[in-house]
Every structure is written in structure tokens, then in C-alpha cells.
Amino acid sequence: MGVEEEFLLLDPDGAVSPQAPAVMRNIGGDDRIKPEYMAYQVETTTSVCTGLGELRSELIRLRLIAAEAAEAAGVHLVASGSPPFPGGPLDALSADDRYTELARRFPEATAAGATCGCHVHIGVPDRELAAAVLTRIRPWLPGLLALTVNSPVAGASDTGWASYRYQTQLHWPTFRPPGVWPSAERYDREVRSLLAAGTAIDASGIYFLARLSARFPTIEVRVADTGLSVADTVLFASVTRALVATLVEDVEAGAKVAPPAGSLVSERLLAVARGGGRTGAEADRLLAKITPQLDAAGDTGEVYAEVERLRREGTGAQRQRMLFERYGPTSGFVAALAGETAPLRL
């Protein structure tokens, strides 16, 4: 498994700050950290990890490197699915020809501002098998989102959403669950069709909530908001790995599948993003499905403890909301988010 995390760069008052070039200069050439679509974003990428402890150590170190570089540039590194305050140049693109073309092609989505997600890659070298898993992963996406919502504040107010990022991302025409494709060739045909229709500029710009990676022999699950804490991200990665392993086993066993309608999956996702009453049920259903694979990997105790932590302390969205209730739209709230993102220093 490997993990990509996206972060905001905010000034002390909470406005987005296009300091990614300065942050990258301070980092000094670490290719695990790079600018993102907007000049007030950076992304970190782990190496391929096999254990949760290894993944946790990498995530901590990458966050701390990025946070120190951001601090040296006069800004905070913040893990939130959406910019919490309206200030700053929300449409400030990074200097990249691909990003310029994205903004030209999709002005409405770009004008909505950046969002930050967490993308987990799980190795599935057989593309036919991976395509079959994509069909089966669709009904479990709401449960994954339920564990990872982390964007309740936008425009300096509580939006009432658990994942405001989710509704913002709907401006992108391919931000949707994967379809029901019986083969890798049918998946590739859909990608070619979308590119020909102009709904994406390249394969990397197709934003299915789970997809076959355009670069690696992996399934890339993209439904999650970026994790407020490292613990949130490790939980998402461990659950995703167990889910993919479970679905691979189902495919190989020839288990029957009746894919739900795309509209039903989308309705359930929207209900979770809004913070509806099914959030807990979706997560419980997911855990019941993957527990045998958690047992096989030796991850059951840790995953169940982390889920209990979320029930006790709240999801990223609930914890972020509590901080907003405490501090309001102030620099204290921004500093608190930065502290949750990287609570230590190297």
C-alpha cells in the first residue's frame, strides 16, 4: 500500500497562501513532497509499505518535514478537506501547463477552490482482477467516506456538512463512483470515451472515487477527505487494504455480486457527506465485511481501537467542528488545525 496526502497552506489568519514554491525551496528536493493543483497546496507520497507501523512512521515524518518547511515560509500546513476561510487567492494555480489546461477546460470546478483528499493505493498487479474489484467496491465507498469526513468548515462558518469537500468536488464531471465494468478492457474503453468527450484531459484527470491507477499496478481509492491526523490516515489505509483483499477473495471464489445502481451509491455517499444518520451504520457494515482480512493481516486490534477512538473523540469533521466552536473564525482555530496536522517537530 501507498498513501498520498494533500494539505493546505494557510496564513496565520486562515487565508489560503500561495507559498508552495517557497515551501518546496525550504524542503530542498525531497521528491516525496510536491506542489499540487493550487499554489496553496502540497502533496506528500509515501513509499510502498507493507505494515501499518511502517506507514505511520512515513506519514509522520513527511508531515513534519512539510510542516517545518511551511513554518519557515510563514504559513501553516493544515490537513482539511476544504479551505476553512474565504480569504486569499482561491484560484491561484501552481505553475504547470497541465494545471493551466485543467483550469481552462473546467473553470467552474477551478473557481470552486481547491480541496484536499487522501488517496490510498493497494497493489493488485492483475488488471482484470483489479477491474472486477472496482465493480465490487462501489457499495463500500460510503463506509470509507464515513470514517474519513474532515471538512465541515468553509467560508468562515460551519457548513453543516461533514465533508464539504465532497459536494465541492462534484463540480468535476468524473468525480463519481466507478461503473460496473466486466473487464479491464471495458474500463479502458470508458476512460477513452471520457477523454474523447472532453470530460478529462488525461487518464490522471479522471477522478473516479476508486480507479485503476494510471501510473502503478494498483487500485487507487480516492473517496476520502485528507485525514486530520496521522491516525485517521492510517485507519483509512488499513481498512482500504483489508477491503480490497476481501473483494479479491470474493472474485477468486466466484462469489455472486449484484451491483447496486450508481444513483443509489451516490445517494448514500451524499448522505454521509452531509453528516446524515447512516454514517455509523455504513462504517459498522464495512467493518463486519472486512474483519476476516483484518484478522489475517494481524490488524484487527489496531483498527477496532481506532474506530472506537473515532466514536469516542469524533471523526475529523466532528473534531474540527469542536475546535471551531471553541475558537470561532480566528487564528486560534487555524493554529489548532495545524497542531492536529503535525503535533510534533523534527
Structure description:
The protein has 346 residues and is of the alpha+beta class. The chain has helices at residues 20-27, 52-72, 97-105, 107-111, 127-137, 141-148, 164-169, 184-197, 230-252, 262-273, 279-297, 300-313, 316-327, 331-341; strands at 2-10, 33-35, 41-45, 76-78, 117-123, 153-154, 157-158, 210-212, 218-225. Strands 1, 2, 3, 4, 5, 8 and 9 form a 7-stranded antiparallel sheet that branches. A two-stranded antiparallel ribbon has the order 6-7. Strand 2 and strand 3 (41-45) form a beta hairpin. The radius of gyration is 19 Å and the shape is globular. The model has no long low-confidence stretch (mean pLDDT 95).
Query: pLDDT under 50 segments (min length 5)?
Result: none
Structural class, by secondary structure, is: alpha+beta
Shape: globular
* Terminal residue distance: 25 Å
What summary fits the major beta sheet? 7 strands, antiparallel
The value of Rg in angstroms is 19 Å
Q: DSSP strand (E) fraction?
A: 5-15%
Strand segment tally: 9
Helix content: 40-55%
Order of SSEs: EHEEHEHHEHHEEHHEEHHHHHH
Output mean pLDDT.
95
Number of helices: 14
